[in-house]
Amino acid sequence: MPESKPTKQFREYETIFLLKPDLTDESVDRVRERVRGIVNREGGKVLRFTVWGKKRTMYPIAKQARAIYVHAHYLGQPGLVSEVERNLHNLDEVTRYMSVKIADEVDPDSRPALEDVKLAGDVDEARAPGPEREEFRPPESEESPEMDEENLEEA
């Protein structure tokens, strides 16, 4: 009976980290590529990065009401998450991060690497505001019948 070659099993993780809102796209790409390099260096596999864009936070983080949200989805060995979080902690651009294990024993060949995605995020406060909404006024008609008590009772 021939022995089958054991396949290397990884764990599936996702990490969401918040970046300072005043960063440029190049700075966000630099942080993203640094995390990608750590995952690859540690023998993992990046499935997808999704930049969710600048969004309002529930409460101020690092004295900022907004942050740039980045979601990283990857496969790796158990020590990989601690290495990613250690590097995120050392970066000044990163204000918060959280990692979650999604699954155990995932075959890396069954999970294809997907193209990175960049979403728009919320409307930026720096943009010019849209036209102010006017107070609602019912359309004026030429004949406006006065409602008396009989009409009010029917309505």
Give the helix/strand layout.
Layout: E1 10-19, H1 25-41, E2 45-61, E3 64-76, H2 79-90, E4 94-106, E5 117-118, H3 149-154
Parallel strand pairs: 2-5
Antiparallel strand pairs: 1-3, 1-4, 2-3
Annotated CATH architecture = 2-Layer Sandwich
**Helix/strand structural class:** alpha+beta
The largest beta-sheet arranges its strands as: 4-1-3-2-5
Number of strands: 5
* Fraction of helical residues: 10-25%
- The rough form would be described as elongated
Looking at CATH, which topology would you report?
Alpha-Beta Plaits
Question: Biggest β-sheet: count, sense, barrel?
Answer: 5 strands, mixed
Strand content: 35-45%
**What distance lies between the first and last C-alpha atoms, to the nearest angstrom?**
86 Å
CATH class: Alpha Beta
For the record, the count of structural domains works out to: 1
**Strand-and-helix sequence, N→C?**
EHEEHEEH
* Number of distinct helices: 3
Mean pLDDT: 84
Low-confidence sequence ranges: none
Can you tell me the CATH superfamily? Ribosomal protein S6/Translation elongation factor EF1B
Radius of gyration: 26 Å
What would you note in describing this structure?
The protein is of the alpha+beta class and 155 residues long. Helix content is 23%, strand content 35%. The protein has helices at 25-41, 79-90, 149-154, and strands at residues 10-19, 45-61, 64-76, 94-106, 117-118. It is elongated.
